[in-house]
Aminotransferase class-III
Amino acid sequence: MTDAAPDSKVLHRSLLEHPETVTSADGSYFTLSNGQRILDGCGGAAVAAIGHGDADVKAAVMEQMSKVAYAHTLAFTTSSAEELADTLLDGNPFGLCRAYFVASGSEAVDAAMKLARQYWVEAGQPHRRRFVARRQAYHGSTIGSMSVGSHVGRQRPYKDALLLNNVSYVSPTYAYRVQRPGETEGAYARRLVAELEAEFEAVGPETIMAFVAETVGGATVGCITPPRGYFEGVRRACDRHGILLILDEVMCGSGRTGTYFAFAQEGDVRPDMVTLGKGLGGGYTPMAGVLVHRRVVDVLARGSGTFVHGHTYQAHPVCCAAALAVQRVLKRDRLVAGCAEKGKWLEARLRERLGPRRYVGDIRGRGLFWALEFVKDKETKEPFAPRLCFASVMRREAHRLGLAIYPGSGTADGQAGDHVVLAPPLNATWDELGILVDLLESAYDVVEKTLS
């Protein structure tokens, strides 16, 4: 970071510092205005699924812009939107049969929430007005998506003025801090499902529209994975009470965890809605979406025959063309299967090189989606004091050495705790993954020495 530019008219995330200027990006690397090359070890925020500057995506965008740059979806559709939906929903995977395309993951979650409400209104149960979600989760920055999330720092200024009051929360699948000593994975999964059932009963299951959860946790806690059997139990619990299941895969989906849908690794889950984003468009254009199960679509088709929701840039033809090109690269180069293979190698190297280190409390994730949680004491799992900003210091040191990583704070309880997320492009080379681990270890060494 550099000192704030006095002539900058951009409202940056920080009003005190001015971010570095990226002048070009190619493959897995950024080049900055000062000439420094930065290995993109986090895909921005798990966005750059196929890296930067892909020629096929650029060609697809230019071709679409030369044909139709914009068409309002009230009256029109375009071939790029139709082909993207056909590609994602070929064979109606897991019963998902319709796609609703928007420009961000936050918009996708809001759309899913509104679709859940309209579903129950048209199903003759308008008394269902509540959501159940999980603590230490992130679902977006719009009012609706922030309400079902629970990122303490991002909610704080808005909690008593803007956020919805019809949401209650249960525990995250955060084994490092929630699983009890000696508790088996199966017992842990059953306990979490029992807690969810108890929340349904306490709130009144007949009042609940949907349960909302990240399949694999993202930015708030960092790549927390569910215990085996958890989501199958969640699906059964939702079915018993007629509650919809919305899985948020904005960060962990689109192949990031080694299967296209992260929930595909969880057994018989069949979500009613799945949100996608980030890797869907790979960062080439703003792109996200909601995939909807046929049982939800059927209720609306028999009722009003419409979804009472819309955006000016919904299913934007250029955005859809870019996302379609990204999907074709994923398939052509077998990047999802490659992600699973590379992920095993990356996990082994992280555990070998950084697992034993003094302040590395936990390493977790799947595919090319990994997080390291840092603690002051590995025995007690006591986090560092928030004032030390451990994760931010790690990010700055990694940046100095030429590596971009994604920091997170408030990991342990919303206030204290630190982690960093790694989410390199799915087509990062083996050499680049090795460089990522080397640079991460070097950055950690500097930070550990400073604290010690």
Summary: The chain has two domains: 22-53+334-451, 55-333. The first helix runs from residue 43 to 46. The chain has a mean pLDDT of 96.
